Known about the structure:
GO terms for molecular function: 2 iron, 2 sulfur cluster binding; ferric iron binding; ferrous iron binding; ferroxidase activity; iron chaperone activity. The protein is of the alpha+beta class and 142 residues long. The protein is built from two helices and seven strands, in the order αβββββββα. It has a single domain, classed as 2-Layer Sandwich (Metal Transport, Frataxin, Chain A), CATH 3.30.920.10. The chain has helices at 27-51, 126-133, and strands spanning 56-60, 63-68, 72-79, 84-89, 93-101, 115-119, 124-125. Strands 1-2-3-4-5-6-7 form a seven-stranded antiparallel beta sheet. A hairpin with a 4-residue loop joins strand 6 (115-119) and strand 7. The longest helix has 25 residues, at 27-51.
Amino acid sequence: MGGLAHDKEPIAEPAADRPSHPTPISEEKYHDRADHFMDALNERAEKLQETRDDVEVEYSAGVLSITIPSKGTYVINKQPPNKQIWLASPVSGPKRFDWVLEDEGLHQKEGSGKGNWIYIRDGTSLTELLREEVGLKMAIDC
């Protein structure tokens, strides 16, 4: 005879508060959001560079590199074909971030509302990852 139902491992449910898919946005909104984020990130990285002798920042051709000798080099760039921002981190590895609205509902217009760049696989936000690994404080809604 088979085991009792309670003997089986429960099937893991996706976290209710973790996004399971990116918010659909137009190409124009993607560029607006991503450019705003990249510009704000570059500005904060340059401020960090001014306060720390060991930090090097380079922003060229849409690719932002932040080098911290104790950790390595972070590379952040837009990926327009996928409407993503990609990060190569020496600490957490490569990640692809999608624009996700918080509390997205049917009443919201495409690309509007408060959102963040989220790694869909584990729910990590790009702003939180940069705060934890690099020490950059970013506004959530970029």
